[in-house]
Every structure is written in structure tokens, then in C-alpha cells.
Amino acid sequence: GEDVEQSLFLSVREGDSSVINCTYTDSSSTYLYWYKQEPGAGLQLLTYIFSNMDMKQDQRLTVLLNKKDKHLSLRIADTQTGDSAIYFCAESSSNFGNEKLTFGTGTRLTIIP
Amino acid sequence: EAQVTQNPRYLITVTGKKLTVTCSQNMNHEYMSWYRQDPGLGLRQIYYSMNVEVTDKGDVPEGYKVSRKEKRNFPLILESPSPNQTSLYFCASSSRTGHYTFGSGTRLTVV
Fold first, then answer.
1. Nearest residue of chain B to residue A49 (CA atoms)
2. Beta strand A107-112 with A9-13: parallel, antiparallel or unpaired?
């Protein structure tokens, strides 16, 4: 079945850039997502990229997709304390609808003052 | 406000006592789904529904039931909860071509 992998932890100094990486196995992925989960909260959709794109930028967020290597990354520029959260990578491979998102384990981002 | 509402937010129960976690969405979405989140495992899909009266198993359906009698509601039923069902549960909904919106979660503890 589909598999999505992420490292569990990342620590970054405030003001630096954070790069969170994700690899996936499903070559038929259509959309790839980044969700943010703050303590005690649900999942907030941060951004997504369609599988035929290489890059997407949205303010401080940059998503890079290497489809050949099945590698997705999320870069957060000028990381702030409010960026502390768990970040989930997810992929959707349904061609007919949205039956399923497959999630990674989540990366806990800690900001060092 | 467009949202997915789950209740309760927190629940402590005893082994074997049937419980239902409710989920409701006000966006007229066709798709609804239940996930459980466990440390180190991410989110895993329990059940999903493509429309009224259409449901199917996800990756970890054992011990759970769902129903979709109305488009807006998708309750998760644990007929005989066990301690290994202690987890954080999320309901989510999406349109057929849109992206999922998640509820705030239900933290369930089975003792």
C-alpha cells in the first residue's frame, strides 16, 4: 500500500529557515499536502501541490516536489515561535474523488529562541 | 462559518461500554472520513463515506462502525471499546474535488 515517511523531530533557531522533508511511495499520487497541527487543535491545511507541479510558493511557505524521487519538502522562511507545531505530509492518490489521504507520522518543529 | 463539528472533545469510558462520537459538517460535502492519530503513527483512516448510505473501510476499521443516513452527519460507533482504542480521533469532510476540512478532534481514553 501507500507509504509516507517523515522524520519525527526538527529544531530550528528563530529567524532561520525550516525545511521539513517527506518521501512517499505511491507513484499515482495526484495531490500532496502539508497540514499543521498546533497543540490541542485539529489539522489545518497549510498548502498543497498538484503532482504535475515542481514548486509552489505562498508567502513564507515554499513547497518543492521531486516526482522522480518521490520527495516533497516544505520550507518555512523566517521561522517564528508561532510556527511551533507538528507538520504532516499527506498524499491523495484517488483519481475519482477524495476517498483517502495517506499521512506521514508528522514532524514536530521546535523553535529555539 | 464552514466547519466540521465533533462531539465530545474529550471522553473517558470503560472497556465494553458502547459509545458514539458525532460528526457534523455544514458545507454540503459528499465525502466524510474518520481518522485516528497515535504517536509515531500519524493519522490512519478508519472509515470513509462517499455519500449518503455509501461507506467503506479504511486501513484500521476493526472495532468501529459508521453510518451515513444524512449527508451532514457521520457518527463513529464503538460497540465494545477496548484500551487499544484509546486515541485522538478526527472527522473530516470534503467535496468531491476539494480538499479535506478537519474537525477539532476527540480525545478518547478507554480504561
1. B99
2. parallel
- Give the cell for residue B28: 454540503
Q: In what order do the strands lie in the sheet with B65-66?
A: B4-7, B19-25, B76-78, B65-66
| Residues of B (25-84) whose Cβ lies below 8 Å from A | 30-31, 33, 35, 40-45, 48, 50, 56, 58-59
B16-34 confidence digits (pLDDT tens): 999 999 999 999 999 999 9
Residue B73 to chain A, least CA–CA distance (Å): 17
pLDDT tier, A39 (very low <50, low <70, confident <90, very high otherwise): confident
> Does the beta-carbon distance from A105 to B30 stay under 8 Å?
no
Look at residue B86 in the predicted model and tell me its pLDDT. Answer: 98
**B8 preceded by a cis bond (ω within 30 of 0):** yes
Query: How far is C-alpha A9 from the chain's CA centre?
Result: 13
Report the b/e string of A87-98 with b at 16+ CB within 10 A. Answer: bbbbbbbeeebb
Please indicate whether, in this complex, the C-beta atoms of A97 and B31 are within 8 angstroms of each other. yes
Residue B82: exposure state from Cβ atoms within 10 A (0-12, 13-18, ≥19): exposed
Chain B residues touching residue A103 (CB < 8 angstroms): 35, 42-44
